[in-house]
Automatic annotation (TrEMBL):
It holds the Pfam family GST_N_2. The active site is at residues 51, 182. InterPro entries: Glutathione-S-Trfase_C_sf, Glutathione_S-Trfase, Glutathione_S-Trfase_N, GST_Omega-like_C, GST_Omega/GSH, Thioredoxin-like_sf. Residues 306-327 are annotated as: Disordered. The record marks 240, 283 as: Lowers pKa of active site Cys. It comes from the Bacteria. This is Glutathionyl-hydroquinone reductase YqjG. GO terms for cellular component: cytoplasm. Glutathione binds at residues 84, 117-120. It comes from Nitrospira tepida. Residues 50-145 form the GST N-terminal domain. GO terms for molecular function: glutathione transferase activity.
């Protein structure tokens, strides 16, 4: 039996999911030399509460106190063959900036020849009427650095002295965990699925060990890597364990990872960025090839507000050689 791929253009010959590259990679900079100067009210963020890539940018926007600087509009969590849509509903709305009905209109306005999959997040330039960037990696860094004169937040999610180590760990997290759950869930062959799941749980085991000696991935302060991991851990027991068949273990079965997840969730303002209803309805209703009944599970019952039990863990950054090994 041959399974139907979720995204045929991103499926390899052996049944492995191969995510498309981000198409728009211009940068907003503090000095404006890029052609996109940091300005209050000029840029707008299109996101989905459901998407982990978009969720990362929502989190950085919140931590950096940029809500009044960069606007944000949330799409409907239910995506059909027309793609992400702007509709009125609980937690999502019409587009107040361009009055687009579908996010694809933003892509076509920027590049009429664009034929790839339409994804979130999107950072839109209201002045030039085009997408600046659709890479969550870039948008996180822009929000962290380019808009500092517009905010009183002193949060720095990528300190210069840790940047190389953060980049190495981010690559490990993306390859094995963040995209790893999708490589398992979107696999169309047994071999591709098993390879992805094995790599995923090897990585989770390594992260569980790493987090036994530090409150966060680099000691006692959170950085960009922590939020990259957070968005996947948050969705794991809700969606990936069952829907994507990542079911060797749950995150609740990992004492350090589960405590770490709760610790991050309880950071001021973060719970406001989490919409469990959107997350569950998006995955279980949108992925008809994986869940043809489109029934949304009621569970699991998960208390992320209980004591994480991690504040006693030691300070200090993880050593460079350990970060270079990936976990």
């Amino acid at each position: 039996m041959t399974a139907t791929p979720q995204f045929p253009g991103e499926q390899g010959a052996e049944g492995a999911f191969q995510r498309q590259a981000d198409a728009f990679r211009d940068w907003v900079t503090e000095d404006g030399r890029s052609g996109y100067p940091a300005e209050g009210g000029r840029y707008h963020l299109y996101v989905s509460w459901a998407c982990p890539w978009a969720h990362r940018t929502i989190i950085v926007r919140r931590l950096k106190g940029l809500e009044a600087v960069v606007g944000m509009t949330v799409v409907d969590p239910i995506r059909d063959e027309r793609g992400w849509a702007f509709r009125e509903g609980p937690g999502h709305s019409l587009d107040p900036v361009n009055h687009f009905r579908f996010l694809s209109e933003a892509y076509q306005a920027t590049d009429p020849q664009y034929r790839g999959r339409v994804t979130v997040p999107v950072l839109w330039d209201r002045e030039r009427g085009r997408i600046v960037n659709n890479s969550d990696d870039d948008i996180m860094r822009m929000f962290n650095r380019a808009f500092n004169r517009f905010t009183s937040s002193d949060v720095d999610l990528c300190p210069s002295e840790l940047e190389r180590e953060i980049d190495r760990l981010n690559e490990f997290l993306y390859d094995n965990v963040n995209d790893g759950v999708y490589r398992a869930g979107f696999a169309t062959s047994q071999a591709a699925y098993e390879q992805a799941v094995t790599r995923l749980f090897d990585a989770l085991d390594a992260l569980e060990s790493r987090l036994s000696t530090g409150r966060f991935l680099f000691g006692e302060r959170f950085v960009e890597s922590d939020w990259r991991l957070f968005v996947t851990l948050l969705r794991f027991d809700l969606v990936y364990h069952g829907h994507f068949k990542c079911n060797l273990r749950r995150i609740v079965d990992y004492p350090n990872l589960f405590g770490y997840l709760k610790d991050l969730y309880q950071v001021e303002g973060i719970a406001d960025t989490v919409n469990v209803d959107h997350i569950k309805r998006h995955y279980y209703v949108t992925h008809g090839e994986i869940n043809p009944t489109r029934i949304v599970p009621l569970g699991p019952i998960q208390d992320l507000r209980s004591d994480p039990g991690r504040r006693h863990l030691g300070a200090g950054a993880i050593s460079s050689d350990r970060a270079a090994r990936g976990a």
